[in-house]
Request: fold
Amino acid sequence: MKDRAITLNDIASKLNVSTVTVSKALRNHPDISPATTKLIKQVAEELGYTPNIMARNLSARKSNTIGVIVPKIAHFFFGSIIEYIYDVAFENNYEIILTVSQENPERERRHIHTLMAMKVDGIIISITQETHNYEIFEMVRRRGIPIVFIDRIPKIENINSVAVNDRQGAFKAIEHAIKLGYRKIGHLAGYTNINIGRDRKQGFIDAMNHYGVEINSDWIIEGGFGEKYGYDAFMKLYNQKNLPDLFFTVTYPVALGVYIAAAEVGLKIPDDIDVICFGNAEVQNFLSPPLSCVDQPTKLLSENAMNLLMKSIQDPDSQQTQNIIIDTQLILRGTCISCNKK
Reply:
């Protein structure tokens, strides 16, 4: 038989105080003295009391929970984002409800409905690569639920968002490669319906044009953001005997696909084919050779997203929105540090 749940009445009876006093003490209300609060909390812990969060939320009309939706979880970038969001949430006495869309817009939509039904106080989301219909986000706003978009941002006016300067970051990578002496540069691009694919591709084009380097349209292949896409794109050009000297990839997983494909056909990185990617991960230090990249500061992204959301929760009537753009930096390791073609 299960033990009966301990209630406020049990604590109040034990200490011969009112349930109101117990309730206030457990919420650190200033009406209750520190000594009494300490005693009540001590007895509550001894008895094994756990608060009924759902009941408390109904009475307070606040859940102290934040919904987070990411496209992937087995991914350094999003794993790091989640970790830093958790840290800021914990500091502000909030809990996180994490959902993963798996790059599926229907799952994304269902997760949003679930989070709204759970009465979260706000939502942080990075949309899927396939998201085209933004009506669900408009519904969230009509319901008065604060929402902040992080990294992947839909084309909607008057939203709160936090992203890195994707266009500038891509420009830096290509500028660096050109200054090394590279001219035959390809770009394994993401989907251009989404900001990160569109802006990183534009940064690539900007740098090539700025330095007067010819763009070979065959070497710009649009696809996805994952490892398989990088592998397939590399093999397509390899089989056509049309590889560039350097690939700039839209994400780290795409670069990993290039590493796998190059090894399979016996080409060495960076001697035969060089690579630089957008997006950093600790594991890149352990690749052979270690992979150079455009770094996205996940801590800054997460902290800014949480701060924006907390402001919106605390001031729900505010109509002011912010679009925060964070600069990137190049991290040079064992690739794209010298030109492999003289």
The CA atoms of residues 227 and 256 lie 6 Å apart. The chain has three domains: 8-51, 64-164+297-325, 166-296.
